[in-house]
Amino acid sequence: MTGTLFTLTFAVAAPFWALMILLPNWSWTARIISSPLIVLPVVLIYALLVVPAFGEVLPAVASPTLEGVRDLLGTADGAAAGWAHMIAFDLFVGRWAWLDSRERGVPALVMAPVLVLTILLGPLGLAAYLGVRARWPRSAVVAPEPQRLG
Description:
- This protein is mainly alpha-helical and 150 residues long.
- Helix content is 75%, strand content 0%.
- Helix 1 runs antiparallel to helix 3 (40-50), helix 1 runs parallel beside helix 6 (76-104) and helix 1 packs antiparallel against helix 7 (108-120).
């Protein structure tokens, strides 16, 4: 079952990445990606892997040591759970970057490689987007004038 869950992890996330990268201007992409629930399938896989092993996982993460984390991730269940953890957070960060880039008017051709980097090397993709984001500041929203009574 662990191998199946490992394989399924990216398979359930891939369609959302495909929408953001390949169909960024399709009206349904914005509707789908606007929901934070897109990460829920991966979170459920993570839960299926972690909850049964909670007694082993909690000590390793509550008081982490290099050896403890190595031992946890060195098992098939631990590696699959670590993978699901990474995929869930990478997707959430990619979703945030995609939505933020739309508000800022960052071109889709600029975002595509950033999103691919986020898929492959999550924190480096986040760093790349933070750099991109600085070049496209959000437009200042002008607050409406307060209405006067009388």
